[in-house]
From TrEMBL:
Gene Ontology BP terms: cell division
GO annotation, cellular component aspect: cell cortex; septin cytoskeleton
PROSITE patterns to which the protein is assigned, alphabetical: G_SEPTIN
Protein name per Swiss-Prot or TrEMBL: Cell division control protein 3
Organism superkingdom: Eukaryota
Region span, Disordered: 370-420
Origin species: Coemansia reversa (strain ATCC 12441 / NRRL 1564)
Family: Belongs to the TRAFAC class TrmE-Era-EngA-EngB-Septin-like GTPase superfamily. Septin GTPase family.
Basic and acidic residues: bias regions: 370-395
Domain Septin-type G, first and last residues per copy: 36-309
InterPro entries: G_SEPTIN_dom, P-loop_NTPase, Septin
Length: 420
């Protein structure tokens, strides 16, 4: 591997010379995800008859919502908002999806809709609470996630500005859920009416500081994705039509759509409505982002607020903000301290070894000196013995003088005689 010039924050960019294989990682993630399947929880909010069940069935091209009997309008006023959910396992190209659709029958159906948002908000929060309770368990291996990933909010195709109920709902919920406002039954408005209506809705949303879900591009997105996101963004709020029925085009091709005396309106025709863009964002390009936003932004905020309100205080010594420069400085200081300690320890050990060696040398020097002294005295002794011997030998080897002879003989005689 060769190093390239770029060096960002201490991490070097390296150029590889060959294929090693980690680029296959996305495929591994894909395989694992396909095996496990996905969960997606979608809430639909809008008054009865606005087209919620038809749109969901059209989106997933299956009967998620069962057929409703055409009910005669009830004489009794609606009893309030209910929250019901239904799940379905659907599969496409081997990929399994556990889809849960949460319906909110009764929303906007009462005479007084002031608090219509309340049971829905409570339901969304209770799902967060359930998740939080599971997260706080000792064993977290099997957490079931029922949090709402997105809410499709159906705006009545009035052509005027947003109603109080719409604004109130969105204001109360925009920090708790990914909001996707759509104009329902878009076929009931003309193209120019729709254009104007969209502008009014966006102005109201901006005015009230409501956050809605929008696809955002970042530096890592390829140009194609950036262009797709821009296209999707330009259609928000999506004006859609729903239809599970097929109608025939003039050329005889069957398509999902609605028939009018003046012609047909097709569900999957971008010139007729924004159904394709809604489906693209919701299911094809941004499902994961919706789930991520729910988990990392909306739920995380809720969790923080909840724990703080319960008296939990964050220990900022543990969770202090990460500053790489301070961190590096601290690491350097710790490293220097460690090196200094090692140096002191090493010089202590070194000094001890030197002392030991010196003591040993001194001891062996003394031993050598003692041996030398001993050997010297032995040699001295041997020398004086030898000298003594030599002297004696010299004396015995010298010729005897007549005087000595006489003396000796006398002596001998004497000795001889002395023997008697
Ligand atoms: P829900 O009560 O909100 O679930 O509404 P439904 O999906 O049951 O739809 C109520 C009625 O509106 C049905 O007769 C649908 O055929 C009709 N409908 C649904 N979507 C559209 C649409 O996009 N355009 C028109 N014109 N009618 C629609």
């Amino acid at each position: 591997m060769k190093s390239t010039a770029g060096n960002t924050g201490g991490i070097q960019k390296k150029k590889m010379n060959g294929y090693v294989g980690f680029s296959n990682y996305p495929n591994q993630v894909h395989r694992r995800s396909v095996k496990r399947g996905f969960n997606f929880t979608l809430m639909v909010v809008g008054e009865s008859g606005i087209g919620k069940s038809t749109l969901i069935n059209t989106l997933f091209d299956s009967k998620i919502f069962p057929d409703r009997e055409e009910m005669p309008p009830s004489a009794e006023p609606a009893k309030g908002v209910d929250v019901t959910s239904m799940s379905a396992d659907i599969q496409e190209n081997g990929v399994k999806l556990r889809l849960t659709v949460v319906d909110t029958p009764g929303f906007g159906d009462s005479i007084n809709n002031e608090d219509a948002w309340q049971p829905i908000l409570e339901n969304i929060e209770s799902r967060f609470d359930a998740y939080l309770a599971q997260e706080n368990r000792v064993n977290r291996s099997k957490i079931s996630d029922n949090r709402i990933d997105a809410v499709i909010y159906f705006i009545k195709p009035t052509g005027h500005c947003l109603r109080v109920i719409d604004i109130e709902f969105m204001k109360r919920l925009h920090t708790k859920v990914n909001l996707i406002p759509i104009i329902a039954k878009a076929d009931t408005l003309t193209a120019s009416e729709l254009e104007l209506f969209k502008a009014k809705i966006l102005a109201d949303i901006n005015y009230h500081g409501i956050q809605i879900f929008k696809p955002v591009s970042d530096e890592f997105d390829d140009p194609e994705t950036v262009a797709d996101n821009r296209e999707i963004l330009s259609k928000i709020p999506f004006a859609v039509i729903g239809s599970e029925k097929h109608v025939e085009r003039p050329d005889g091709t069957p398509v999902r759509g609605r028939r009018y005396p003046w012609g047909i309106i097709e569900v999957e025709n971008e010139e007729h409505n924004d159904f394709i863009k809604l489906r693209q964002m919701l299911l094809r390009s941004h499902m994961e982002e919706l789930k991520d936003t729910t988990d990392m932004v909306l739920y995380e905020n809720y969790r923080t607020q909840k724990l703080l309100s319960m008296g939990h205080v964050q220990d900022n010594n543990v969770f202090r903000e990460f500053n790489p420069l301070v961190q590096m400085e601290e690491e350097k200081r710790a490293h220097d301290g460690k090196m200094q300690k090692m140096e002191t320890e090493m010089s202590g050990v070194f000094q001890q070894k030197v002392n030991e060696k010196e003591a040993k040398l001194k001891q062996s020097e003394e031993e050598l000196y003692a041996r030398h002294k001993e050997m010297k005295s032995v040699l001295e002794k041997q020398r004086s013995e030898l000298e003594e011997k030599k002297k004696r030998a010299e004396v015995s080897a010298r010729p005897v003088t007549p005087m000595e002879q006489q003396h000796t003989t006398k002596g001998k005689k004497k000795n001889i005689f002395s023997g008697f």
